[in-house]
Specification:
The strands form eight sheets. Strands 2, 4, 5, 7, 8 and 9 form a six-stranded mixed sheet that branches. With 460 residues, the protein is mainly beta. The termini are far apart. The longest helix has 41 residues, at 419-459. 29% of the residues are buried. It is built from two helices and 36 strands. The protein folds into four domains: 2-106, Immunoglobulins (Immunoglobulin-like), CATH 2.60.40.10; 113-203, Immunoglobulin-like (Sandwich), CATH 2.60.40; 214-246 and 254-306, Immunoglobulin-like (Sandwich), CATH 2.60.40; 319-415, Sandwich (Immunoglobulin-like).
C-alpha cells in the first residue's frame, strides 16, 4: 500500500496545500490540538499521514465541497507526537505532499533554564543570544515565542565540560513594537517530539524614553550577609508593571502594580536572605500590560554586601577614629580616619539612617597601616550621627568587610546660631569688663591722690 501511495504522490498533478496546528505545534500533555490542511476549492478527499506509522492514515471527506479539512486530538499524548504531512485527491488528480508539520508534546521531564547573553536588556535594533541549558543530557532544545505559536526554533544541544547540555539561539533584531517573551524545552534524541516542561518565561526588555522610575533599598545600600533585602521601584507615572535588572544578570524579574496610591505606582522585589550573589548594580523599568514598550532605566542602585569576603581572603574589621574628637563645635574641621592593618584598596564611610550612598576613598599606606581620611569641613549639625566604616578590594568592589565599631559624632551649635543668647552673653561679658576697669580706675586715682598728699606734707 505504501508503494502505491508513494507512486500516486509522485504523480502529483495538483498543487500542494499547507498544513498547520492550532493552537500551535508545541502542545502540553493532555491538551487539545487541531491539525488543519488547506488546498484549492473543489470537492476532494484529504489524507493525513504520520511518519513512522505506515498504517496511520487518516481520511477526511467533507460533507460539502471546501478548501480545508481538520483532524482533532482531544488529549495530546506521546503517542500523538510526531511528524505529519497531508495531501488530497480529486477527480482531476492527486496533489503534491504538503510540507512537514512536527507536533511536539511537552511535560515529560523537568524543565531546563533559559537566560539571555549578555543581558535581557537590549537596545532597539540590537541582537541577543538566548541560552537554554539543562543537566539532564537532552539531545535537542526547542525555543518558543509566546503570543505567536507559529514561531519556534529547534537546535541540537552542545555538551559542556560541566556535564550540562545547552543550545544557543540567536535572536534579533529586537524592536520595542513586539513583546519578546520566550520559553524553552529539552528533548532526548531518541524521542525528539516528547519534551520537557517549559522553562520559566524570559522576557527581553527594550528601554524607551518615557519617565524613568526610582529604585531604592528599604534597608539602605549596605546590607549585612544573612539579612533580608527588598528593593522598591516606584514612579509617579501610572505604570502597570515594573522589571528589575541586575547588571550582568541574565534574567529579568517582574512585579505587577497591585494598587496605585496617591498617584504613585510602585512594586516590591523581595530578594530573601542576602548572600554574596546579590551584590551588584541594579536598575528598574516601568511598563504597561497591554504594550511592549518600557520606560527609561532608573538611576543605578549599588547593593553592597558586608561580612562576606572574597574567596581566599581573611575577614577584616577596620577601625574608625575621629580627630580632634567625637564632640566638636559647629564650624570646626573634623576628620574620620578608617584604617586596617591588612592590604585594602578602598574604604567606605556610612552614616546610620542615611539614604545616600556611602562615601568612598582610595586607600593610602602610612606607618604600616592602610587608611583613608574622610574630612568634614566645616562641620554642621547635619553631620552629627553614628558612623561605621568598611573596607573592600577592587577585585570585588561590592563585597565589604565586617563593619568597624560604631562612632557617634556630636556637633554642638555655635552661640552665633542663637543671636539673642549671643547678644545677652556679650552684654554680660562687656558689663563685667567695664566694672573691672572702673575698679582699677578708682584704685589708681586713690593711689595717685595719696602720693600727691604725701608729697605735699613732706614739703611743708
Amino acid at each position: 500500500m505504501t508503494s502505491i501511495l508513494s507512486a500516486l504522490l509522485c504523480l502529483g498533478t495538483l498543487p500542494k496545500h499547507i498544513i498547520w496546528a492550532e493552537p500551535g505545534p508545541v502542545i502540553p500533555y493532555g491538551s487539545p490540538v487541531t491539525i488543519w490542511c488547506q488546498g484549492t476549492r473543489g470537492f476532494k478527499v484529504y489524507h493525513l499521514y504520520k511518519e513512522g506509522s505506515p498504517a496511520a492514515w487518516y481520511k477526511h471527506k467533507p460533507l460539502e465541497p471546501g478548501e480545508k479539512a481538520k483532524w482533532s486530538i482531544t488529549h495530546m499524548t506521546e503517542h500523538d507526537a510526531g511528524i505529519f504531512h497531508c495531501y488530497y485527491h480529486s477527480p482531476t488528480g492527486v496533489s503534491e505532499r504538503s510540507d512537514n508539520l512536527e507536533l511536539v508534546v511537552t511535560g515529560a521531564y523537568s524543565k531546563p533554564s533559559l537566560s539571555a547573553l549578555p543581558s535581557p536588556v537590549v537596545t532597539s535594533g540590537g541582537n541577543v543570544t538566548l541560552q537554554c541549558d539543562s543537566g539532564q543530557g537532552f539531545g535537542r532544545f526547542i525555543l518558543t515565542k509566546e503570543g505567536d505559536h507559529t514561531l519556534w526554533w529547534t537546535l541540537d544541544s552542545q555538551p559542556q565540560p560541566s556535564g550540562q547540555s545547552q543550545a544557543l539561539f540567536p535572536v534579533g533584531p529586537v524592536t520595542p513594537i513586539h513583546r519578546w517573551r520566550f520559553r524553552c524545552y529539552g528533548c532526548y534524541r531518541d524521542r525528539p517530539q516528547v519534551c520537557s516542561h517549559p522553562s520559566d518565561a524570559l522576557e527581553l526588555l527594550v528601554p524607551g524614553e518615557s519617565g524613568k522610575p526610582s529604585l531604592l533599598s528599604q534597608q539602605g545600600p549596605i546590607v549585612a550577609s544573612g539579612q533580608s533585602l527588598t528593593l522598591q521601584c516606584r514612579s509617579d507615572v501610572g505604570y502597570d508593571r515594573f522589571a528589575l535588572h541586575k547588571e550582568g544578570g541574565r534574567d529579568l524579574p517582574q512585579s505587577l502594580v497591585l494598587q496605585p496610591q496617591a498617584g504613585l505606582s510602585q512594586a516590591h522585589f523581595p530578594l530573601d536572605t542576602v548572600s554574596s550573589s546579590y551584590r551588584g548594580r541594579y536598575r528598574c523599568y516601568g511598563g504597561y500590560n497591554l504594550y511592549s514598550e518600557w520606560s527609561a532605566p532608573s538611576d543605578p542602585l549599588d547593593i553592597l554586601v558586608a561580612g562576606e569576603e572574597p574567596v581566599g581572603h581573611l575577614p577584616d574589621r577596620p577601625s574608625l577614629l575621629v580627630q580632634p574628637g567625637p564632640r566638636v563645635a559647629s564650624g570646626e574641621n573634623v576628620t574620620l580616619l578608617c584604617q586596617s592593618q591588612r592590604p585594602r584598596d578602598t574604604f567606605l564611610l556610612s552614616k546610620e539612617g542615611a539614604a545616600d550612598p556611602p562615601l568612598i576613598l582610595r586607600s593610602e599606606h602610612r606607618a604600616g597601616q592602610f587608611q583613608a581620611e574622610f574630612s568634614m569641613s566645616p562641620v554642621t549639625s547635619a553631620h552629627g550621627g553614628t558612623y561605621r566604616c568598611y573596607s573592600s578590594n577592587s577585585t570585588s568592589p561590592f563585597l565589604l568587610s565586617l563593619p568597624s565599631e560604631s562612632l557617634e559624632l556630636l556637633v554642638a551649635e555655635l552661640p552665633a546660631s542663637h543671636p539673642q543668647d549671643y547678644t545677652v552673653g556679650n552684654l554680660i561679658r562687656m558689663g563685667g569688663a567695664g566694672l573691672v576697669l572702673v575698679v582699677l580706675g578708682v584704685l589708681l586715682f586713690e593711689a595717685r591722690h595719696n602720693q600727691r598728699r604725701t608729697h605735699n606734707e613732706d614739703r611743708g
